[in-house]
Amino acid sequence: MSKQPRKQRKSLYNAPLHARRKRMSVNLSKELQEDYGRRSLPVKSGDKVQVVRGDFRNSEGKVEKVDYKNYKVLIDGVTITKTDGTNVFLPVHPSNLLIIDAEMKDDFRDKIIDRKL
Questions:
Q1: In the structure, how many helices (H) and strands (E) does the chain have?
Q2: Residue 25 pairs with which residues in a beta bridge?
Q3: Phi first, then psi: what are they for 29, rounded to 5°?
Q4: Are the C-beta atoms of residues 36 and 113 closer than 8 Å to each other?
Q5: d(CA 42, CA 26)
Q6: What Cα–Cα distance (Å) separates residue 83 from each residue in 41, 68, 86, 88, 92?
Q7: Domain topology for 5-116
Q8: pLDDT digits (tens, 9 = 90+) for 70-117
Q9: Is 92 exposed, middle or buried (0-12, 13-18, 19+ CB in 10 A)?
Q10: What is the DSSP letter of 57?
Q11: pTM of the model
């Protein structure tokens, strides 16, 4: 792995989707960290998250969509009103989020947690 910033940026922009999913991990709340024995999990739709930085700080909502192409997450309740009156989601980077309630109905997530223990 290179230390050069240009190669780091290139690997970020040219990463395949399965690698982008791993890079879009979100920190867990303190309670979930104790329960699962992990600091973070890859974000998925259905998770309840809290925004910790930005204009919508301390707002909570359910993840509606995860955009792996642009490294953004769309959250229910984090919307802006356009001049014509329509509401649109404001994309948030995963580093500005905190998972409060994880959706654990996924077998893949169970494997992640079992692997760590």
A1: 4, 8
A2: 42
A3: -65, 165
A4: yes
A5: 6
A6: 37, 28, 7, 11, 21
A7: SH3 type barrels. (2.30.30)
A8: 999 999 999 999 999 999 999 999 999 999 999 988 888 888 888 866
A9: buried
A10: T
A11: 0.88
Strand order in the sheet with 97-101: 40-42, 25-28, 97-101, 48-51, 60-67, 72-75
Return the bridge partners of 72, or none.
67
| Tokens 């969509």 -> residue | 65
Instruction: Kindly report the backbone phi and psi dihedral angles of residue 62, in degrees, each rounded to the nearest multiple of 5, phi listed first.
Output: -90, 140
Average pLDDT score over the chain: 93
- Give the start-to-end residue ranges of the domains of the chain: 5-116
Phi, psi for residue 85 in degrees, rounded to 5: 100, -5
